[in-house]
Amino acid sequence: MTSSAGSSCTSAPGQKQRRSSRRRCHTPGRDPPAPSALGDFQTLPLEIFQMVLNYLSVKDISMLSMVSKTISSRLINYISTSSGTRRLLLQDFHSPELPGREEGASILEHYRSLGLLLKRCTLLLPTRDRLKYVHKVLSGVSCFKLNGCASPLHCLGLQCYGVFLQILTAGWDELECHRVFNFLWELSNLARKVQTVVSGKPGSARRLELRIRLYCRGVLLSPGSHRGDSAFWLTRILKPWPMVNQARLLYIIFGPVSSLDGHVVWQKMIEGPTDETSLKGLADAIKLLYGTEAREWTADDVISLVDELSVLPQEWLMENNARLLLLSGNSICFTFLASKAVNGRAAELARLMVFMALVCEKDLYCMDWAVKMMQKVCKVFSTPCERNNFLQCLENTFAHMLMDLLQAVLAGERDEEDGSFLNFFHLVNAQASFHKEILYLAMGSSSSS
Question: Ranges of Basic residues compositional bias (predicted)?
Answer without folding.
Answer: 16-27
